[in-house]
Amino acid sequence: MAQSYAGRAALVLLSHPAMHRSRVNAALLGAVRARPDVTVHDLYKHYPDFVIDADAEQKKLLAHRLIVLQFPFYWYSTPALLKEWMDTVLLHGFAFGRGGDQLHGKTVMVAASTGGDPAAYHAEGYNRFTIAELLRPLEATAHLCGLTWAEPFIVHDAIHIDADEREKAAAAYDARLSALIEADRA
């Protein structure tokens, strides 16, 4: 039986290879999982073998106005399954290229956690680049697919923040999703 996404505005594509150890992504997910206007899709749960059903994933994308890529920022990139998902689902003729306008007008937002302190993400910092610069490949992908790029939601220093800070981050994430959903309805 096909799943109905009626009334759901946002699709959260969760890509965390070790959710059982996550504190920050678990808190973020906890803040939005029960929302009636959000579909949470855990890629590692659905595709542990990395064999992705492109047709089913494309249908999910078509059914939602807001697409959220939620993941821990590993080695200046996404986890491997999210990259595989992009390679498999965002196809020529669907997401870009001749006839590939199916995602035009939708919005995409990255919701990522980093292990580093915010000060590490600038030209003089440990990582030498801002988080915006490091996310450019995803922004370029959004542009190629005709998606509106929303400012990323980043939780830095995920390894060290305490429960109170995680709770505040989760509330801010929920508020950001609400604002994006409302802006789309306006």
TrEMBL record:
Pfam families the record matches: Flavodoxin_2
Domain of life from the UniProt record: Bacteria
UniProt domain Flavodoxin-like fold: residue ranges: 11-177
Coiled coil: none
GO molecular function (one): FMN binding
Alphabetic keyword roster: Oxidoreductase
UniProt protein name: NAD(P)H-dependent oxidoreductase
Taxonomic lineage from the root: Bacteria, Pseudomonadati, Pseudomonadota, Alphaproteobacteria, Acetobacterales
